[in-house]
Amino acid sequence: MAKILFLEDEKEIIKILDEFLGKEGHELISATNSPRALKLIMTRPDIDLAILDIRIPGMDGIAVLRKVKSLRKKKPPLLILTGSVAEVHFHDNLRKLKIKEEDILLKPIDLYRLLEQINRKLEK
Amino acid sequence: MAGSTNRKKRDSHYKKIFDSLNAAIFTHNIKTGKILDVNRKMCRMFGYTREEALKLNVGKISENKPPYTQKHAVKWIKRAAKHGPQIFEWRAKDKKGRVFWGEVNLVCVRLEGKEICLAFVRNIDRRKKAEEQLHYQAHMIGQIHDSVIATDLEGRITFWNKGAQRIFEYKSGEVMKKNVSMLYFKNQRKLINRKILAPVKRKGSYEIEIMERKKSGKPVYVHLSLSLIKDDKGLPIGIIRYSRDITERRKMEQMQRLAQLGHLVADMAHEVNNPLMIISGNAQLLMAERHIKRQLREKLETIFEQTQRAKDIIQRLLKFSRPRKEKFKISNINLNINNVVALLEHQYIVRGVKIKTKLIRDLPPVYIDEKAIQEVFMAVLTNACEAISRKGTIEVRSSRENGFVRVDIKDDGSGMSRATRKKLFEPFFTTKETGTGLGMPICQSIITDHKGEIKVSSAPGKGTTVTFFLPAHKKKRGRRNG
After folding, report:
1. B477 lies in a domain?
2. What are B230-242's pLDDT values in tens digits?
3. Where are the alpha helices (DSSP H) in chain A?
4. Staple B26 to which of B59, B119, B125, B201, CB 3.0 to 4.6 Å?
């Protein structure tokens, strides 16, 4: 059982992942805004994995990513879940932050594929 | 005594003529050039009294800069004495210091045993200025950066400036008296009369943005401004065509439109993908329930599949705005063709479709994003295969043409109607049940990114040929490509 942080501003999507991952035995900790997600990452060392949407209102997901990447202490592995990754702006920024292509997941994602990716990250 | 009276009469008679002529007249000493006499017209033209004039030398009533000085005047007089009458133009100066152009007519005559020189001077300042103005204007039009072309009413070229040479690559000598239709592509020529000449003749002037043809056969977009040239009576005698090259501006506009579309699509993608995620996620959650009936499960599966299809459409749309410059490299087009053919060949044979290739060796290299170009070939080959209902052949040829590498993909399938062919590159236009209508627009945008061209010829029942032109890559001098 793993603790997974999910940064997502759509409550309906949080509900889906919460139910699905709950059945698979994981605990979903959700944040609907970026500062909250950042605070959780910094204060809860028990978070095993973070899934971030990179186009949410308020602080941009990219900014959260940058902050997380710059943390000195141990940080959770990251997955990106987005609806618009092909847009150049994000692509270039993600490359600069050394996010691998395989860690970028596109909405709407097959939940079972998402689960595979989560497990892959947790095994590492 | 009687002779003397007669002479006096005659003298006053001559004096009358002398003063009433509408030209300034001087008499000069043939050796020194000294002014011996002047007429009334001279006094009016130069602003001196006769008494004042007789004290002047020619230098004083000239611009007095070479070649219009006293010295030069004496030379002219001597020339007239030796060789007979001389006509020349002279920069004269009046009492107020105003310099004007005069036409001088010098004649040497013998009067009462003395050789004297007669100078008739006409003021031609107005004519000279008009000539200079004309010359200046002609020079100016000649030098204008934009194209200025004049034709007669039938379209034969009568004037061609430097700007026209710059834009259309023809020199003046190559086009004079030829018909202006040479600046258009063959398929446009029929329309010139209706689209250009008729409106100008009707309205007197007319503006249009139109594609024209350079000497090299390349297209150029111009903003063409036409006006009728009229003679003094107001009758039309020709047409003047002023055109500005707007090719770059058009390209920019197209790029901007594409970029705008790209942003719009990226925004839309995000907006649409979230609800799609909610639909597909909920469908999957329901499917995971044990008590769900088979019939219901099938419907849920359809919902899930359709959300994935929508996702594919959006991802393909996003490709519109994706620049791929960093992926460009020097490549051989034949290798790209072979790669794609090798990939598709087996699945096509199963369907009864053969792919033949006729590739020319020693083609010049192309500078391309291989993945994107192969995607284009793949899309066109797939269309070709789908156009063949039973058995058939697809032929892929490569060749070189005018600095371009040409690829033809020809099928003997069902072909297209004219209406279909026209809409081929419009986004979301499709004839297939499961098509997205984005394949050909994406192909076109990829080929355009490569500064290439894509052409389609087809007729119902006669198959389709899709032709690509990609610019041949020029090797830089002093460097060898390994």
Report:
1. no
2. 998 989 999 999 9
3. 11-23, 34-43, 61-70, 88-96, 111-123
4. B119
Domain count, chain B: 4
Tokens of B113: 């045993």
B374: CB partners within 8 A, 6+ apart: B336, B339, B340
- Whether B338 and B463 map to the same domain: the answer is yes
Domain holding B218, by residue range, is 143-245
Cβ distance A23 to B288 less than 8 Å, yes or no, reads yes
Asked if A107 lies within 8 A of B307 by C-beta distance, the reply is no
Q: Which residues of chain A are within 8 Å of residue B321 when distances are taken between CB atoms?
A: 87-88
Average of per-residue pLDDT across B460-465: 91
- What domains can be seen in chain A, in order of their start residue? 3-123 (3.40.50.2300)
Query: Which of B270, B279, B285 is opposite residue A84, by nearest beta carbon?
Result: B270
Judgement on whether residues B235 and B258 belong to the same structural domain of the protein: no
Residue A77 confidence (pLDDT) above 70: yes
B327: contact with A, CB 8 A cutoff = no
Instruction: Say whether residue B280 is in contact with chain A using an 8 A CB cutoff.
Output: yes
- Which residues of chain B have a CB within 8 Å of the CB of A107? 273-274, 276-277, 311
Written as six digits, the tokens of B197 are 């000449």
Residues B48 and B118 in one domain: yes
B339 Cβ contact list (under 8 Å, min separation 6): B374
Are the Cβ atoms of B273 and A88 closer than 8 angstroms? no
pLDDT band for position A58 (cuts 50, 70, 90): low
Is the per-residue pLDDT at A92 higher than 80?
no
Please name the member of B274, B280, B323 whose beta carbon is closest to the beta carbon of A83. Answer: B274
pTM over 0.90: no
Sign of the torsion formed by the C-alpha atoms of B65, B71, B77 and B80: negative
